[in-house]
């Protein structure tokens, strides 16, 4: 019984947190403290668990808790079936269970059979929960919920209604989960072209210039890319938040992801420059990130978008973005702090041993690489034959363990971006 109570204390707060985010419970349950813990949800669930443990007989409580968990397992299996059949591109699980759908159908049916075998009380409790949940949704949550769910995407495959709200929710989940180890986010950012757009430049002109940069790396014309970006913006497929716009495309002709970063210190009114008049976004943007990716890897495309969105949502991003004195600093404002290290080569310091060496001769920890070399006012694209010189500022990306080893090797010469 103690193990059941302990498991409940550890996991129970996730239910009111998720339900609050879906507007099924009051919003205060979704409030997080500075470290990301849902404090009100934790206080409420721990308090309820302690009351039940102290005031009631443990044996029936353990049965009811087991029945509740079995019901949740059944609903989880049902959710997997619905999500898979919906074919939503934003659905990007790290693991896909085998023997679909038979294993999942068994997972839906078997828990309810087990609940019946547990006796009358657990069966009545489960039925009561289902009835109470249906009534709560009908009388409280229905008017507060913005979307109906993944089942609409199943209906859409049959020619009926679909709902786009779940796509947005799944993208938010992807933002919280972050990138996978194989995602080339750092490489995409460090290879990105940068455009400093003067004040007064229209959004269409920015799209044209960015498309010209991307056309050099893709098997597509600048016009085709530009038309795709504009179409996505007009129909509302371009995320805009905190002064940042993220136009994006996926095309079968593209072999790898490419990015163009545009800084607009004066701000750009996107809606003012679209002749169609269908884009109502009035928020001026000071940063525009154009991303193109292969058509056959939607998950990676969305994870890169989510990573960028997560970075620009931070309070310190816009200040770092607008005040960046050069292109290297501009890219460092986007890169993940734990995947980035900078090193300035100076005489009389541990980094002096790198001066005069070619990059191909430098032994770096596995999973790390020198992505950018800042030399005076210029950014040097690093190649194997590139010879490092005194005063060079290196941007090194890679796995946290490798970067930590480099930091210890060069001690205080290696700095994380926030120290600059």
UniProtKB/TrEMBL annotation:
<dbReference type="InterPro" id="IPR006037">
    <property type="entry name" value="RCK_C"/>
</dbReference>
<dbReference type="Pfam" id="PF02080">
    <property type="entry name" value="TrkA_C"/>
</dbReference>
<feature type="transmembrane region" description="Helical">
    <location>
        <begin position="120"/>
        <end position="139"/>
    </location>
</feature>
<feature type="domain" description="RCK C-terminal">
    <location>
        <begin position="327"/>
        <end position="412"/>
    </location>
</feature>
<feature type="transmembrane region" description="Helical">
    <location>
        <begin position="95"/>
        <end position="114"/>
    </location>
</feature>
<dbReference type="InterPro" id="IPR002178">
    <property type="entry name" value="PTS_EIIA_type-2_dom"/>
</dbReference>
<feature type="domain" description="PTS EIIA type-2">
    <location>
        <begin position="187"/>
        <end position="337"/>
    </location>
</feature>
<dbReference type="GO" id="GO:0008324">
    <property type="term" value="F:monoatomic cation transmembrane transporter activity"/>
</dbReference>
<keyword id="KW-1133">Transmembrane helix</keyword>
<keyword id="KW-0812">Transmembrane</keyword>
<dbReference type="GO" id="GO:0006813">
    <property type="term" value="P:potassium ion transport"/>
</dbReference>
<dbReference type="InterPro" id="IPR004841">
    <property type="entry name" value="AA-permease/SLC12A_dom"/>
</dbReference>
<dbReference type="InterPro" id="IPR016152">
    <property type="entry name" value="PTrfase/Anion_transptr"/>
</dbReference>
<dbReference type="InterPro" id="IPR036721">
    <property type="entry name" value="RCK_C_sf"/>
</dbReference>
<dbReference type="GO" id="GO:0016020">
    <property type="term" value="C:membrane"/>
</dbReference>
<keyword id="KW-0472">Membrane</keyword>
<feature type="transmembrane region" description="Helical">
    <location>
        <begin position="37"/>
        <end position="56"/>
    </location>
</feature>
<dbReference type="Pfam" id="PF00359">
    <property type="entry name" value="PTS_EIIA_2"/>
</dbReference>
<dbReference type="InterPro" id="IPR050367">
    <property type="entry name" value="APC_superfamily"/>
</dbReference>
<protein>
    <recommendedName>
        <fullName>RCK C-terminal domain-containing protein</fullName>
    </recommendedName>
</protein>
<dbReference type="Pfam" id="PF00324">
    <property type="entry name" value="AA_permease"/>
</dbReference>
<feature type="transmembrane region" description="Helical">
    <location>
        <begin position="62"/>
        <end position="83"/>
    </location>
</feature>
């Amino acid at each position: 019984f103690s193990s059941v109570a302990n498991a409940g204390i550890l996991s129970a707060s996730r239910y009111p947190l998720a339900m609050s985010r879906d507007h099924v419970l009051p919003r205060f349950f979704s409030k997080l403290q500075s470290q990301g813990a849902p404090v009100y949800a934790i206080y409420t669930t721990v308090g309820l668990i302690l009351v039940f443990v102290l005031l009631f007989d443990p044996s029936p409580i353990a049965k009811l808790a087991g029945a509740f968990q079995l019901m949740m397992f059944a609903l989880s299996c049902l959710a997997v079936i619905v999500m898979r059949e919906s074919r939503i591109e934003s659905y990007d699980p790290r693991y896909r269970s085998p023997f679909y759908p038979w294993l999942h159908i068994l997972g839906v049916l078997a828990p309810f059979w087990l609940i019946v075998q547990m006796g009358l009380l657990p069966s009545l409790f489960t039925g009561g929960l289902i009835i109470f949940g249906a009534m709560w949704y009908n009388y409280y949550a229905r008017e507060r919920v913005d979307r109906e769910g993944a089942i609409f995407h199943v209906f859409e495959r049959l020619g009926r209604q679909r709902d786009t709200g779940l796509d947005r929710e799944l993208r938010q989940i992807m933002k919280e989960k972050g990138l996978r180890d194989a995602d080339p986010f750092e490489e995409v950012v460090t290879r990105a072209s940068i455009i400093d757009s003067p004040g007064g430049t229209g959004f269409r002109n920015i799209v044209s210039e960015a498309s010209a940069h991307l056309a050099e790396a893709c098997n597509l014309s600048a016009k085709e890319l530009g038309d795709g970006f504009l179409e996505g913006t007009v129909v509302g497929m371009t995320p805009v938040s905190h002064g940042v716009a993220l136009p994006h495309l996926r095309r079968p002709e593209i072999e790898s992801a490419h990015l163009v970063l545009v800084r607009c210190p004066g701000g750009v009114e996107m809606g003012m420059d679209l002749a169609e008049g269908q884009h109502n976004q009035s928020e001026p943007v000071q940063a525009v990130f154009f991303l193109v990716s292969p058509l056959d890897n939607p998950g990676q495309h969305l994870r890169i978008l989510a990573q960028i969105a997560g970075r620009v949502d931070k309070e310190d991003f816009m200040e770092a973005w607008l005040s960046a004195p050069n292109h290297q600093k501009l890219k460092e404002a986007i890169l993940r702090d734990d995947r980035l290290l900078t090193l300035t080569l100076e005489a009389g310091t541990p980094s002096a041993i790198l001066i005069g060496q070619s990059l191909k001769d430098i032994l770096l920890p596995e999973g790390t690489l020198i992505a950018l070399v800042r030399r005076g006012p210029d950014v040097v694209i690093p190649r194997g034959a590139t010879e490092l010189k005194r005063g060079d500022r290196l941007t090194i990306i890679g796995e946290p363990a490798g970067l930590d080893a480099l930091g210890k090797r060069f001690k205080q010469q290696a700095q994380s971006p926030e120290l600059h």
